Amino acid sequence: MLWATLVAVVAIAFLFDFTNGFHDTANSIATAVSTRALSPRVAVLWAAALNFVGAFISFKVAATIAKGIVNEKLFVGESGLKIILAGLIGAIVWNLTTWYLGLPSSSSHALIGGMLGSAISAFGLHMNGARVVIWKGLYEKVLAPSLLAPLLAIPTATLLMLILLWLIRKRRPDRVNHFFRRLQPLSSGWLAFTHGTNDAQKTMGILALALVASGHLDASFSRPPLWVIIGAATAMSLGTYAGGWRIIRTVGQRITKLEPPRAFAAEATAGSVLWLTAHFGFPVSTTHTVSSSVLGAGAAGSRLRAVRWGVAGNIVIAWLITLPCAALVGAGVEFLTRLPGGVFFALAVAAGAGTLALMARSKHLSAGKVQPDVDSVREGLIEAGAN
Predict the structure, then answer these.
(1) Residue 384 domain flag
(2) What are phi and psi of 127, to 5 degrees?
């Protein structure tokens, strides 16, 4: 049964990475699509390729996920694998829920919340005198950086945009837009690359934890096995290619109207913040960072009224509830795994959530609501500007 459970964990981990890819596609391409710098299909392919490449750079985030948040010594054998499986399914269910609602919530917080919920459900807060949750690591490497990243992104994007506004103040708008549309493939590509560097590492860390629990990897590992790296990178790239057009509309159109210079500023800022946090091994939310950069760039130059603060407020609410909600789902799935045939029931939950998501996606594809062409994106931007 150990092997069967390990295979289930690997499969579900790659499924989570896939949902992470299509859930967070908007992070790197929404602004480029909304300004018509790239067509939707080219943007998705470009982001998928750079997500894959970025996954091979640095493994500090993977080490943080595997060793810095929950006590990895408690995850032993098949029972440990079941806890990891429950945490992953909790993250997947919440990812799919927020995707369906079109909310750009954090896949990182969903994963961490799912793992925390399943671990606490299994062990409580203490087990044999040892703490289950590494509270210092949770605060210093997850919560504090996840708060600081948006707080850094907003003023940085605003400052960069103000500098750009001063530089282009005497230029013709059509020429300025044309110039920055040419630059956006680079800035959106930079953002996709750093997204891969940050987010793909999280699944690698979970898989490394599972391999340690099953005895297939030494606890003192410095990097995950090569097949884990390639598998995580591939799953995220495929998910990115699948696309998450509901969230793309929220980030690229509904927060604020973005012209090419503002989109460039948002992309460049978000990518730089993600690169900095990955360097220190902080598994921050790429969604938080990108949305905050869009807010900062959109509000620059006396444009506070151009930001749809109601939409921004809904995003903040999604940020706040993601970790506890994913933890509750993870705890519930962990309880299922204790029942006879519990692993089968847990996998059924994941399969059911995935099936409902595919049905919803097919429904909106047939209704023309999921993959908007460039003209519909433009219409959405005109409407946003009018409002």
Answers:
(1) no
(2) -140, 115
